[in-house]
Amino acid sequence: MTGQSAGATRLGGDGFGDALRRLRAAQKPPARSAPAYSRFVNRRIGRYLAAWAYTARLTPNAVTAISAVWTFAAILLLVLFPPSWLLGVIVAVLLLVGYAFDSADGQLSRLLGTSSPAGEWLDHMVDATKVSTMPLALAVGFYRFQVVPVPWLLVPIGFAIVSAVLFFGMILTEQLRRRTRGAVPLAEDAPGRPSWLRAIAVLPMDYGVLCLSFVTLGAVPVFVTLYTLIAAATTAFLLLAAAKWFRELRSWTPARPDQKGDLR
């Protein structure tokens, strides 16, 4: 999820196994709210991909680009072809591989110790694009092939809005938390250990679960039901999270009056 400079240092003779061991040691603790698939499956797959990328001498930015190719290929297929079991499986696989590479770029960057603002910007731009274009592509494809009643298309259109706002809210909240200088704790600094219960409870908001839901694309009524439930759960999560974020940030008062223009 971050980038690297051209002069990144790699230890000579490092093989796949060595890189994998170093990646395990370089892992950052998972967020307490990390859902089960992202935490227990995607991070692990991403670790293996990061070790492969390391031995292939790829940069984190190159891994981000690979993630984008897999992801946007799936999104394009949703527009071009009518729903079917084969399409659903292909789209799910493409999205899941793209998601794994999305985890790998950040792990590779930590392994190399070469994080950069440009790399983080690139990763966030790709993520912001995919969370908005995926539901819109689904709506366009369903409209083209007339497989659902037109009013249902409001669900993916609304989901595109919710996804964009949620992504922006998470990024902005973390940036503002950093400006509080400890008055509002960062997400990774929150007390307590991640729990299985929390990881399972937030599964409906897991991007990996959304990707897996496309496996049912051949049974449109089933897919529509799953997708609607995921969209509704994500909307509820956004409303609850936004209220929590606002309360946290409102509790912090800037030290100088001249900061009021920025943070109200």
From TrEMBL:
Entry superkingdom: Bacteria
Instruction: Quote the InterPro entries the UniProt record gives.
Output: CDP-OH_P_trans, CDP-OH_PTrfase_TM_dom
Q: Where are the transmembrane segments?
A: 85-101, 152-172, 199-220
Pfam families xref list: CDP-OH_P_transf
* Keywords from the named record: Membrane, Transmembrane, Transmembrane helix
Keyword match Membrane: yes
- For the keyword Membrane, the answer is yes
Name this protein carries in UniProt? CDP-alcohol phosphatidyltransferase family protein
> Could you tell me which species this protein originates from?
Leifsonia virtsii
